[in-house]
TrEMBL record, chains A, B, C:
Residue ranges of the TM segments: 6-23, 30-51, 57-78, 118-137, 149-167, 173-194
Protein name, as recorded: Trimeric intracellular cation channel family protein
Keyword Membrane: yes
Family: Belongs to the UPF0126 family.
Membrane topology note: Multi-pass membrane protein
Keywords: Cell membrane, Membrane, Transmembrane, Transmembrane helix
Upper classification of the organism: Bacteria, Pseudomonadati, Bacteroidota, Cytophagia, Cytophagales
Ranges where the Glycine transporter domain occurs: 6-79, 92-164
PANTHER family documented for this protein: INNER MEMBRANE PROTEIN (PTHR30506), UPF0126 INNER MEMBRANE PROTEIN YADS-RELATED (PTHR30506:SF3)
Annotated organism of origin: Algoriphagus namhaensis
Compartments, record wording: Cell membrane
Length: 200, 200, 200
């Protein structure tokens, strides 16, 4: 469990950095960037927990999440150029992040007693809704609706985890394989510019 | 009560179709359309229940609502041209839907013990906020702010239901008359291009 | 406490007016203006209470808040030109409002037992999120991201209140000084067009 906790804090830290950097090009001041980093980091898990009535919210009950977010925002402020040059690294971090938060979201929903179909949606929401809320606030078309495969990779990974879970695959293997599935789908779809068909 | 349950599922199904079809013209893939259908169908009731602290949310507690939504999204995927040609039919369905969900939202709020003034707002929210959230996420001006009478018809119907309820009009009659009021206001305002005056 | 209650109702009234007037220039009808006034007035406190799981929401539990909002909306409808000519007066009211709601939000969060760091965020959210939700629904860039110092003044005032509170400064003095700090920062930043640096 300690490894999982460390991963959660790291994922939150990385999401805060990517959120703060996401609005660099536009007319936002430091506060706006920090606010955006904060929303990106907490949005998905917060929406999941409000929908499932799970209180206190993770970042309200455990102050270390807030510190991880503040650290991420400060890192984005102090090393913006360095971090931006790491764009590829961050794409990788974000991709690791959505894989990890998808599976964690599914597990949390299951532990609260909902049906697997609902848990799959909650897993996807945990991973992507922080970015959706951020994009909506800043008047961008949410990443969800853009061309590359993003949220659908999370949903596929969530469903895969639930099927493996049904067949009683041990949790550690399942977590690792399902995360890898999300990450692989995302990486492959970006590399080969794959996208889902449109509704004609 | 069985009729009401069937109507609720049907309304959810129709809202999911109209949500999924709503973004056809734009650059969204199948997943985006499905996501939009989902949000449109659950948004209003979910906001109402979160504001009133009523858990579990309807679609989390009863899996048939999710299945109705998935069926609606699949219908929009498989028969998009057929369904779009039914635009007028759908306008009618959407209008029936907002009439029905307005009254249902009022009744649910009353059953949770809030004052009638609050119940009126909750009835309107149940009917229109799914569409508002959908439009906000996809960067559209919400239907609420467009010219035709829409949410105001729901608010009028909700207030009418509450007045009739105060005078102890039997519930079945009241439900039918109030729904008809919402539907009539909406249909007449669209047919004759009526709109409320603007703030000068 | 009676003074505080009167101030809360007055603040809600003023926020409703400024919300309803905010969209005058655009293509919205009277209902849209009323809806916007409502959202502006309740948004911040509602988000705070949902995040902290504090129910019933203030405006659901105490009907006078709804009446204050309706009065504000009606005032905006009946005297729009008069009120708009009072733009400077309203800027002042809005500024008083964010100062007041910031401190009140911090106090409410503390009373619900959260850590001071979380209470600071909740104070800021109480003051500014109504306007953020309003701007998001109407497709504007939220005031938060515009150039002048706004939400950051609230955050500074919230942190100041918490530090004074830690050093056991009596509540009445603390409330007054912290409110004045928010208001002063805001007034000075607008007068001298100060803004926080951007992320380069």
């Amino acid at each position: 469990m300690e490894l999982q906790y460390a991963l959660e804090l790291t994922g939150t830290f990385v999401f805060a950095i990517s959120g703060a950097l996401a609005i660099r090009e536009r007319e936002h001041d430091l506060f706006g960037a920090g606010f955006t980093g904060f929303i990106t980091a907490i949005g998905g898990g917060t929406l999941r927990d409000i929908l499932l009535d799970s209180h206190p919210l993770v970042w309200i009950g455990d102050i270390w999440f807030l510190y991880a977010i503040i650290a991420g925002i400060l890192a984005a402020f102090v090393f913006p150029k360095f971090l931006s040059r790491l764009r590829k690294t961050f794409f990788l971090f974000d991709t690791l992040g959505i894989g990890f938060f998808t599976v964690l979201g599914v597990e949390k929903a299951l532990s609260l007693g909902v049906r697997p179909e609902i848990a799959a949606i909650m897993g996807m929401f945990s991973a992507v809704m922080g970015g959706v809320i951020r994009d909506t606030l800043t008047n961008e078309i949410p990443v969800l609706f853009r061309k590359e495969i993003y949220a659908s990779a999370c949903l596929a990974g969530a469903i895969f985890y639930l099927v493996m879970n049904y067949f009683e695959v041990p949790r550690d293997y399942n977590l690792l394989i399902s995360m890898s599935l999300v990450i692989s789908i995302r990486l492959i779809s970006v590399k080969y510019r794959l996208s889902l068909p449109r509704l004609e």
